[in-house]
Specification:
By secondary structure, this protein is an alpha/beta fold. Helices cover 26% and strands 21% of the residues. The longest helix is centred in the N-terminal third of the chain and has 19 residues.
Length: 470
């Protein structure tokens, strides 16, 4: 709509017929010309057309330069960007929702991601920008909704930052800043399949997040901001006032182009595609998922209409000639029945280490044994402190808390005969070896696990009793 000759007026009936009431428009900021509204003519034409169609416009504002907030004087640039947002808010008072930034965990949009020693740096730089932006927009109108830029749902932690680790670093920076007020009313999030042919029900491994892994977003935010001035997501089937909202401001699957329209598209496709029927099924699935999740306040398909360049996104519910794909009807039906949830998604934060399990080799051992081992697995990175403890007999039991204190802080009366500390990588089964000899007697294994990104989440596991015979 932004670039249409009529400001999108001819397209809005197709949008509203879906039951869609929102259109997101991107607005760039040029740090070399910080006060000029980019593409102002297009915005001046498009926003009145949206207002006439009774469609809410969300502006996604981010810099055209990926080094915009890390080069030069970052504090000065953040201030200039805040002033730019104020200019937009005052010129377009119909806009009540601002997404600030775009995929700050991706080097395509934000550099650098990492500093010396591979230290994560983009999150702290993003926090500096978003706090300035938040305060600037709220000074224009306290009712404006500030949505923190949607992170990409995956990253390799080499050239980009995985979403869980980015959110953790954002929380660290926020707590270090000692800020006493929030910096976001909602968090944006982008959900795409890692491979375009993956169905939405496919789950992704920590620290990335797939279309069916929204609980992992909520857990990451809770780990980062619980008990701070920044609200987190609701922990019930309802979303009480003041809870953080989740704005899924991009999701989509690309489809194969039929031969009749092939000449209307340019270049070559760069991803494996799915059928139009599959797209319809996937979009309906996602709409039902979002509608039944109390944390999700907005869900935005990327796009309404295909991009003509096959290197872009052919994910629209409308083809390039504006004809309707099967997904158009599927989305309309999903929206019309959005309130009919069989059950709303409830969520509670994990308090222990997610997926923590241990396999103990608790068989009796000879006295000359010098290597003992256990196996530990988790669904997230964790630190494992394991020990072998002597007990008084084959029926003796240790108190879990006593073992935890001994392994976690090396305090208390209980001292392990052998002790090992290891890092457990998510999804891998780690063999933990204890090297040394044990006196004849009875023993148990204990392992204390601590979540790598939230040390307050722990889990302690104990084996049965085994004996070392002389």
């Amino acid at each position: 709509m932004k670039y249409a000759d009529d400001g999108g007026a001819s397209l809005y009936p197709k949008l509203t017929a879906l039951g869609v009431d929102t259109n997101r428009m991107a607005v760039h900021w040029d740090p070399t010309d910080p006060t000029a509204i980019q593409e102002q003519g297009f915005l001046d034409r498009a926003l009145p057309a949206a207002a006439r169609a009774d469609v809410r416009v969300v502006l996604d504002v981010y810099p055209s330069d990926r080094y915009a907030f890390t080069a030069g004087s970052p504090e000065v640039r953040a201030t200039l960007f805040g002033a730019y947002l104020q200019t937009l808010a005052r010129r377009y008072p119909q806009v009540k929702d601002f997404i600030v930034g775009n995929e700050p965990n991706e080097s395509y949009f934000w550099r650098p991601q990492f500093g010396p020693g591979k230290r994560q740096v983009s999150a702290a730089a993003f926090l500096r920008m978003i706090t300035t932006a938040y305060d600037a927009l709220k000074s224009v109108d306290p009712e404006l909704r500030v949505i923190a830029a949607g992170p990409s749902n995956e990253g390799n932690d080499k050239t980009s930052t995985s979403p869980v680790r980015f959110i953790a670093a954002l929380g660290d920076a926020y707590r270090a800043s000692a800020r006493s007020t929030p910096f976001m009313d909602a968090m944006g999030f982008h959900i795409y399949p890692r491979n375009n042919t993956h169905p939405p029900a496919k789950r992704y491994s920590w620290p990335n997040i797939g279309p069916s892994d929204l609980a992992r977003v909520k857990q990451a935010v809770w780990d980062a901001f619980a008990d701070s001035p920044q609200p987190t997501f609701a922990q019930s089937v309802f979303s009480p006032e003041g809870s953080l909202g989740l704005v899924v401001d991009e999701f989509g699957w690309q489809v194969a182009i039929g031969p009749r329209l092939a000449e209307r598209y340019t270049n070559d496709e760069n991803v494996p595609t799915i059928t139009e029927a599959e797209q319809a099924q996937y979009y309906a699935y996602m709409m039902r998922t979002f509608a039944c999740d109390p944390a999700v306040t907005d869900a935005m398909i990327f796009h309404l209409v295909d991009e003509a360049d096959l290197k872009g996104f052919q994910s629209g519910v409308l083809r390039i000639n504006k004809s309707k794909r099967p997904s158009y009807g599927a989305v309309a039906r999903a929206i019309s029945t959005a309130g009919a949830c069989g059950s709303r998604a409830s969520w509670k934060p994990a308090r222990g280490v997610v997926g923590a399990k241990a396999i103990f080799e608790a068989q009796d051992q000879p006295a000359d044994r010098t290597v003992f081992s256990i196996f530990v697995t988790t669904a997230e990175d964790a630190i494992a402190r394991a020990g072998i403890f002597r007990v008084s007999g084959s029926d003796a039991q240790l108190e879990l808390g006593e073992v935890e204190r001994s392994l976690a802080v090396s305090s208390g009366e209980l001292t392990p005969a052998l002790k090992v500390t290891k890092t457990v990588k998510a999804r891998y089964t780690l063999r933990i070896e204890f090297r040394g000899s044990l006196e004849p007697g009875h023993y148990v294994y204990g392992v204390h696990l601590r979540a790598a990104l939230n040390p307050t989440r722990t889990k302690t596991l104990l084996s049965g009793t085994f004996s070392v015979d002389s």
